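User: Fold this, then the next.

Assistant: Folding the first:
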Amino acid sequence: MAKKKDDQQKHISVVNEKSLQFFEEYINNPSPTGFEYPGQKLWLDYLKPYIDESFIDNYGTAVGVINPEATFKVVIEAHADEISWFVNYITSDGLIYVIRNGGSDHQIAPSKRVNIHTDKGLVKAVFGWPAIHTRGAGEKEEAPALKNIFLDCGCTTKEEVESLGIHVGCVITYEDEFMVLNDRYYVGRALDNRAGGFMIAEVARLLKENKQELPFGLYIVNSVQEEIGLRGAEMIAHRIKPNVAIITDVTHDTSTPMINKITQGDLACGRGPVVSYAPAVQTNLNKLLIETAQKNNIPFQRQASSRSTGTDTDAFAYSNGGVPSALISLPLRYMHTTVEMIHKEDVDNVIRLIYHSLLNIKKDHDFKYNK
């Protein structure tokens, strides 16, 4: 009887110690929608050894370019902005009410620590919430809602709040930081989608370190303002005018409680990158991704979208008369919370899939629909 082979091969990470240090610093650095510049500078500083040139557009989208002289242009893209809050109203006794900047979740806010960004620097505050003893045992409790969550920065008057530099329109971000959980998951706020920015930067690093020569111009794009309507991608797509775009973003791990797989699909962290099917996803480019995954033994999952992907894929696909575009998603738990979780092996495999897919794109590659 032949000895049974072990089907589980040891996973070898493409992320090295230096790049992991950058990832942690990048996640911990705030990058709220509309105020992404510090994070973009950090990202470009990491990327610069692996590219030929770079630029930042008028609203802050950062782009690194390999082979800028080439006429055929391929984009790999993620978005840089994170959800946040705006100061909306300051009461006479020094409490602060907020509105969303992106899809911030009001239900997770109570008891969270935050940073209020002012011209005088960061001001610490907390989302206050009445103690359980005061909320009326046996009565129907009032749930957290946009109308009743508030910030307390330790002030007792509106004038004291304003003296700290706080005014209507100041942006607010959570304080939570990056960690590794059980040597299996990366955890932090804003992994949606600075994990994507990290992964496309790692693709550029691997191309450089492996001395891979591409027959086209590669534009590594970290877009702004995705969380409020794909706006950064919309602007940069018209500026670059790419021939092909591969987008990476996060998608829901549906294996956790309270998520319906019938409506949300069956996806899980640790099972590989997610390839999407949607009107904006160009069929032949998607086939290239799948064939690349199969050829290189990269595990992958499939997801179907309805009218749109809800990602920057839509902005690129419908620009410039139609750009062949596809989406590679990273499974993520607890989206739009401060404890977003992604699997380390999924990060490696998204990087591998983008990297090998680029090597399969030829100069002037024809992705015509009827091909």
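Now the next one, as you asked:
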Amino acid sequence: MKKTITILFGCVAIAAITAAFAAPRLLGFSITQLGSAVRVATGMGAKLACSGRFVSGFDEQRIMDDLASYSPATRLLQLQYGERGVTAELLGLGQTSATYREGLGCTLDIGETAGLDSVKLAPVAGGSGEWPRGAAVSSIDADLQRRAATILARDNAAGLQTRALLVVQDGRIAAEVYGPGIDAQTPLLGWSMGKSLTAMMLGRMETLGLADTGSRPVFEQWRGDERAAIAMEDLLHMSSGLDFDETYTPGSDATRMLFRSHSASDVALASPAAFAPGAHFSYSSGTTNLIARWMHERLGGEVQSSVDFFRDEILQPLGMAHTVFEVDPSGVFVGSSYIYASARDWARLGLLMLNRGEMNGRRLLSEEWVERAAAPNSSDNEPRYGYQFWLNRGGSSPRYPQLPDDVYLMQGNRRQRVMISPSTNTVVVRLGWSASRYPTGENFAELLPGA
């Protein structure tokens, strides 16, 4: 009888997975892809649970609730928490594990990962004095703080799970509110906001003269075919023309890249050309991981050298002491998706862009690079995208009509947002876990000067 119940429960679980993945963006696979569905579920479960526990410090209930926002079937996962990692199974199937390493966060245990254990990441020395150089905040505006607190309470009463809301006005924190269990030091997942940081790392390399972004082919593997014409700027603009499947269904390029691959960038590197370079915008997380791979190779091809560059040229100059940039099992940063940072650290990145590349008395990005990063692309279908930043302007209509035309944003899944507004000298950070629509334009407009 026990065996019969187990088999029946397994069938119910598979049916639940099939039904759950029938939600928008998680649908479109046949019964022959159920094996992939199980492996994607356990891969996602192990990875996000590991980072949620060891990076963000979440409890097991919050982690499970976050996973279940993608699919109720994930509640059937068995998650085993160890001293430095998590193992996930689905009714004894598809066992996948992820390991936590100090400074590197969590990485799926796929293929050879032993080299990651020897990487050393020196802690970032926090500065003294007022934010952004230090941690002191004495610039809270009472009215703006009240407005931010009202928005956070309203969001959470509506089930939108806003976890952090922070406003920088004229270079100082003017409002800062947090949801239950979150504070100013909690690293939170930015998902695709990491794409903007990846571009900024490339901009830093370019400013230092370490990146010849004009050379072609971008990768030697593309020499001799039509992909040889792709330029780095095409990758930055998401207009490379590569045929990368960004849909999040079992077996898609995106899910294989994030939850089943030893090298995340290998998937996009092998993608064939579908459009002429620069002609057509197609949002692709694989494109960002190609940029991360290119930087990794130019920095010496060693995990330690990439980690050192990130710390020495981004984290330390900006005072980002509560940020973790995770690597794939091959040791390359997963620039598309896996960056955890506190709301204050995300705000530091926004302020660097608002300040046209200068921060804490140092120029990290050239003004010319910042201008290019926030300029529309020349694609035939979506010009409102810069160097891994979403633009409010550039098309026939603004993306967010409630906001100034010059606004541009980092954006990530579950409605992560960092808004840069040059004309109002404002940065707004919103971190949370909203499965449904989030009123970005309406809420952020309430936080601008004069609202």
